[in-house]
Amino acid sequence: MRTSFISLLAIAGLFGTSLAAPILVGVESRATANATDIMNDFYTQVQTHTGTINSTLNGITSDSSTAQNSTAQAAISKAVTNIITAATTANTALKTQKRNLEARTYSALDQQIISGTSANAITSIAGTLGLVQNTFGGVYTGGLIGGLAGALGLVLGTLDAIVGDVLMLAGALVGGVLQGVGGLLVGILFGKW
């Protein structure tokens, strides 16, 4: 009888644990993005929106009607607004990242990568604005620069506070390369006239 009692206990124990076995529940893990990821995402968005502007400009010729020009300008203004929104989003993400990772330090290589990405974004925007100026003139383009310069300045300022020396490195990468409206934008952002 003892053997059957022990067997009964073992079977009951196995049955009980199979019913009470833990259920696997997915755990969400949120890794805080670092400055490199944030700026890569920002640059991707800049490429998308400057591509939209460039393709819009490709449809404009000297024979385009006033209505076609107005439609193109509306599309360009919307794309510029989207770049400003992307810059604002990047700035917010950078500020959050700064609070979450105060102790993180960036190596010289990280600084160069982030500076390069920042310079590419600025160069892309400046080059596109140069094409806008060639097509629609300085008055229209000047109206676009104010909001862009403000939003980009915030991103670069926050980025420089987190990573350090980004403004100096990015400014060195784009300084002297751009002319016209692109040079004006770079001058505003990096203090190079």
From TrEMBL:
It comes from the Eukaryota. Keywords: Membrane, Signal, Transmembrane, Transmembrane helix. Residues 1-20 form the signal peptide. The chain crosses the membrane at residues 139-159, 166-190. The keyword Transmembrane helix applies. The keyword Transmembrane applies. This is Uncharacterized protein. It comes from Botrytis hyacinthi. The lineage of its organism: Eukaryota, Fungi, Dikarya, Ascomycota, Pezizomycotina.
